[in-house]
Amino acid sequence: MEQARDPREGKQPSKQTPQQSAPGVERELQPRADHGEESYKGSGKLEGLTAIITGGDSGIGRAVAIAYAREGADIAIGYLSEKEEADARETAKWVEKAKRRCITQRFNVQHRDECRSFVERAVKELGRLDILVNNAAYQQEQKSILDITEEQLEGTFRTNIFGYFFMVQECLPHMKKGAVILNTGSVTALKGNETLLDYAATKGAIHVFTRSLASALAEQGIRVNCVAPGPVWTPLIPATMDRDHVERFGKNTFWGRPAQPAEIAPSYVFLASQDGRFYSGDVLAPTGSETTR
């Protein structure tokens, strides 16, 4: 039997962590994140299903893709930029290593026509659609609300909430009774964040969107839930935060460190599987107890 680990042990960013430009890429992240590549063990919880994951090239999205594949699901991964293409290919390799099919496509969730093209391709090539994971996100720290430009404000909302609407609108016609929609929320929606005002506002919108959509789709037998993580070590962090913030990122959790993506992915597995069949309209928050600090 594997010995239980002290959750206070784990990789932590430091002054030596290299800064990145947005959106950030997994291959340049130091220390490297754990997506469950060597640790996640599947047990057939999603056997024969198909999942779409936006922002699936890295971070939480990659960890969810690996976990879902090892649970038996085929995966369609969406990513934003040419810069992220290598990360998307790496994620696809892990999915295929689990003997599941994987397609990747570069597209921008801000535009509904691009969402439609991605969804149609996924359904055509993979044959069905059972799970949508809305995970693509953008954030940019600003010291004052006066520093948030109209361009940043619109971009954050178009990615973090418009994109969720668009993906649901395009996926829903292909979904049947028993399908699942999962949205990635955030601890910032639960407690706010003074330097991520626009991001926190979109995450709050996602939480309410989740509850409202769950009510709207209940009669169709489609469940809608949200995972609201605390600090998680992903490329977005050194790409959108200054060096001092990166160094102390996650230190206000009980464990004194940010979560690894592999520690968040099981929440998505639970909510997508029959284990979570009574859950809908709920927000599952693996925050490291940050909401109490």
Protein described:
With 293 residues, the chain is of the alpha/beta class. The chain has one domain (44-285): NAD(P)-binding Rossmann-like Domain (Rossmann fold, 3-Layer(aba) Sandwich), CATH 3.40.50. Helix content is 38%, strand content 11%. The protein has 9 helices and 7 strands. The protein has helices at 59-70, 85-97, 112-126, 150-171, 188-191, 197-217, 236-240, 243-248, 261-272, and strands spanning 50-54, 74-79, 102-106, 131-134, 180-184, 223-227, 283-284. It has a 7-stranded parallel beta sheet, sandwiched between helices. β2 (74-79), α2 (85-97) and β3 (102-106) form a beta-alpha-beta unit. α3 packs parallel to α4 (150-171).
Provide a concise account of the structure shown.
This protein is of the alpha/beta class. The chain has helices at residues 59-70, 85-97, 112-126, 150-171, 188-191, 197-217, 236-240, 243-248, 261-272, and strands at 50-54, 74-79, 102-106, 131-134, 180-184, 223-227, 283-284. The protein has one domain: Rossmann fold, CATH 3.40.50.720.
Beginning-to-end CA distance, first to last residue: 34 Å
Biggest sheet strand line-up? 3-2-1-4-5-6-7
- Give the SSE string: EHEHEHEHEHHEHHHE
**How many domain modules?**
1
Largest sheet: 7 strands, parallel
> What is the CATH architecture descriptor?
3-Layer(aba) Sandwich
CATH homology superfamily: NAD(P)-binding Rossmann-like Domain
- Uncertain ranges: none
- What is the CATH C level class, in words? Alpha Beta
- Count of individual helical segments: 9
Shape descriptor reads: globular
Provide the gyration radius in Å.
18 Å
Helix content: 25-40%
